Amino acid sequence: MIGLGTYAFFWQHSDRVDEPLSVIGAFEATRALDVELFQICDYAPLTGMTDREIADAARAARTLGLTIELGTKGIETAHLERFLRIADVFDARLVRSMVFGPDSHPTLDDADALLRGILPSFEAAGVTLALETYELIATTDLVRLVHEADSPNLGICLDPANVVARLESPRTCVEEAAEVVVNVHAKDFAFARQPGWVGFTYSGARMGDGLHDYHHLLDTVRPRERGVNEIVEHWLPWQGDPETTVRTERDWTSATLNHLRSLE
To answer: Start and end of every Xylose isomerase-like TIM barrel domain (predicted)?
Structure first.
């Protein structure tokens, strides 16, 4: 299933716009685009919401007919237990996370122990933990963690854009992780020369205009055959003013949805 995530509403959630979009507002905008899946990912207000506010958001999602996934950072036991409780409220079947949290950088051995300790709780809850590919851990190491944990409720959230920062090839990342991918972050990316030809800027691109060979991802991972969800997000730079930035973000979302749907 193709869905949207909070990174598709990054600037619309921002305090730099006149009326930042709430998570329920993002739900409503998602349904207006005929999308039935939303990933609340790295949305800071979520962890500050009261139980009642979380329940209200979950009720709104159900009323709109949305399936919800969650996203956070870190694999500390107490943190993931908290997200399992939030997942229960939303009836979310997937929690995306990253090995390193804001204040935690476990060794690979420690990460293995943490995962082995928490995975029985995910298995009992029927929730999948998806560890994202990114620059702070080699894709080969992440894949090895998944294999060694040997749990049907652990896999990889594939985001090949992230690994460029550690000089990994996005294409290689896709191929190395393919077997254990349980979630995909779908966005395009590109390099552009900085003014004066002194280096490059690496950032997002309108889907289909950048360097991401999404056909290769589909052929290699086969997410649609395997029931793996594809979550639209963006790396959209600030466009100079709130109106232009939000308008561009909405255009990128529509363009990405159209592009992904055209590949079905």
So the answer is: 31-253
